[in-house]
Amino acid sequence: MKTHEVRTYKSAEDLPRENQLAWKIAEVAADPVAVDADVTDMIINRVIDNAAVAAASVARRPVASARAQALSHPMSPGATVFGVDSAQRVSPEWAAYANGTAVRELDFHDTFLAADYSHPGDNIPPILAVAQHCGLSGADLIRGLATGYEIQVNLVKGICLHEHKIDHIAHLGPSAAAGIGTLLNLPTETIYQAVQQALHVTTTTRQSRKGEISSWKAFAPAFAGKMAIEAVDRVMRGEGAPSPAWEGEDGFIAWLLSGPEAVYHVPLPTSGEAKRAILDTYTKEHSAEYQSQALIDLARRMGPKVGDLSQVKSILIETSHHTHYVIGTGANDPQKMDPHASRETLDHSIMYIFAVALEDGGWHHEASYTPARAQRPETKALWHKITTKEDPEWTRRYHARDPKEKAFGGKVTITMQDGSTVVDELALADAHPDGARPFKREHYVKKFLTLSEGVLSVDAQKRFLNAAEGLADLKAGTLDALNFTVDAARLGAPRPTGIFDRS
Q1: pTM (two decimals)
Q2: Which pLDDT belongs to residue 202?
Q3: Residue 341 CB contacts under 8 Å (≥ 6 apart), including other chains
Q4: Could you say which residues of the chain have pLDDT below 70?
Q5: CA-to-CA distance for 107 and 217, rounded, in angstroms?
Q6: CATH class belonging to 290-426
Q7: Helix (H) or strand (E) segment spanning residue 410
Q8: Which residue among 218, 229, 340, 371 is least packed, with the fewest CB closer than 10 Å?
Q9: CA-derived radius of gyration, the chain
Q10: Given this model, what pLDDT does residue 487 score?
Q11: Residue 270, exposed/middle/buried by CB under 10 A (0-12, 13-18, 19+)?
Q12: Which CATH number does the domain 2-283 belong to among 1.10.4100.10, 2.130.10.10, 1.20.1560.10, 3.40.50.300?
């Protein structure tokens, strides 16, 4: 790996293309390096993981809305949409939008946290949609996905967005564009322009994850994937992009990040170096914000030690800056304590999540979020006894580069009415690669079978798993096998129509 210094340049300085971050990203994408076997294996795991959460969310309103929008844009050859027969194809950018929404709706797929945070599996829907539309093979898709993960992970390592309230999809647009560039074997110049265009049109604020969080949280990464496809298409037609996108005098760093004097350091593979960043990422066992994963595991471990939860006086969670200020009481969001809050808001309330996990001894992707569950009097009472506090040591470990030091958990002190305490801490979720029960292929398969039960038939489950596990050998034009069809009755009642629904 080589670490690249990235800063603002005045227009008069005429920064050469080869010294621009977008060009360096494009060079990585255009490098025809082989994909390592363990990387291929993990890509397959994440294809299974994405399909699992998409199957579980396929009938939910935001997913149905996105699917209806996509189906208004038929195209041949086109790409497939989760839940719909593969014969019904749509324009690839709209397939990416619909499938990306299905993948993100439950906040239940993979994650990577460093200087910023991300869900790198959001790269899969746009890259897969283009691969289907262009009739490419499983091996082609694997190469594209290895690049998508590589670029996103390294942008997340080097550039913090959230401190400036920029949503993390600003790293996703460029990574998906780069992955599509690899998939299509595009020249460096074309990928360079597409990466910049994708950055330019996917920079949005973090209000999508603040206060009363709406369904846009699921749509946002899907939108970024859609924009990445459009950026590549536009540039392939000979169009350019704002340049230099990151380093320009009126560019991303100068006006949206830390300003003209800021310097960032972004690591990227050197020429001929394998793309292995996906191995730094991790998926979720529980359908909730990643910083809650270890704390859910901790709650189910502490519950039996506490006993009668009505005797709890207070609960203090000492944790990282991010957990405290984004999903904890440090956010100062009254919505995070509101039993009538949306699922998306409760997903970003560690106070609610810890209370429910403590009561139930675990977490369920649907039952844990129902209005009836959130409005139980005993749950509300326990929930409102919970506060969070930043601990500098947990913050340091959150940002640590040494994998042995890195941690996303916290320490919990439960004080009882009689003054006694129950204290425990957990650094990593059980399912983390360095956790108590690291996720392996068998766990991804189990997650898929569990989340798709009652949604897909047993035969459909088997067909999908056979295709996914044999991804490397899928021939050109056979990637439709990574789709699944759901009986129309399971997709729920018809939704209100939009401007394109004019049948």
Answers
A1: 0.92
A2: 96
A3: 212, 335, 349, 352, 374
A4: 213, 492-494, 502-503
A5: 9
A6: alpha beta
A7: strand 410-416
A8: 340
A9: 22
A10: 87
A11: exposed
A12: 1.10.4100.10
